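Morning F.,

Quick status update on the modeling queue. The single chain you submitted on Monday has been processed. Sequence for confirmation:
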Amino acid sequence: MDILIHSFSGLAVGTVVASFSKRGWKDRAKIIAISGFGGALPDLDAISLWSGFDSTFGTFFNLDHSGKGIYSAKFWYSHHAFLHSIAAAFFMAALFGLFGWMVETKIFKSKPNQLRSWGKRNRLTFLGFVLGYLLHLLEDMPTPASTWGGVNLFWPSPAYVGGTGDIWWWNNYDIFLIVVGVIFANLFLILARRFFHFRLRQLSLGVFIFGFSLAVYQIKTRPYDFAYSGHTTQYTEFESKSKEIQKEILGDKLYRVMERFDRRLPVYF
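Structure tokens below.
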């Protein structure tokens, strides 16, 4: 899927994790933001498509392949490889956690300065990051196999998982709207909990499960097979069909709104 859905999905799971926090809005906002960051991070491996990749990273590491070649290959640093694995989710959580601890305790002289106690205090933030990261991997599995055959979920195993082609890479406006709905519903619940007594954790989790189930239903009932391996000459046809399906699902008016929004974004959506 596209980076916008990945990021917002991280925010959505972050609203659930934030409902478990007993602290104020500042802590909850941090959990949600970091979860969104976790949802976007796996696609850092797409940096090989950057126009300046060959003259910077390629030259510095003396790489034998161009950035575009690396992107479509199955090197550990290619797209859908290491960074799209469970191992990477926990490695990145540890790496950024260590960085956050150093910034907070060494630069700002905040206490407690013991790494273990700091980690315990920020465990919900870590949880949100990891869940947002893992949700990204799950969302990439129903996209086409392309040159990878899915995602390298269990790295360092060479096996790739997914690549079913249930949905196209982009134009999944219905999924985006479901994700946004979950975010707003759970933010409303968190706000309402200040004025009314109810089981916030259970309700926010229930909202997420409902949204997740609805998204899975939408994905699995697409009336078209987008599956392909390697490279395809049907790219334009697939993309056109994806938009046609969205128009049928959303209706003309809402589809036009989403299409205008799509055209204004500098990223694929």
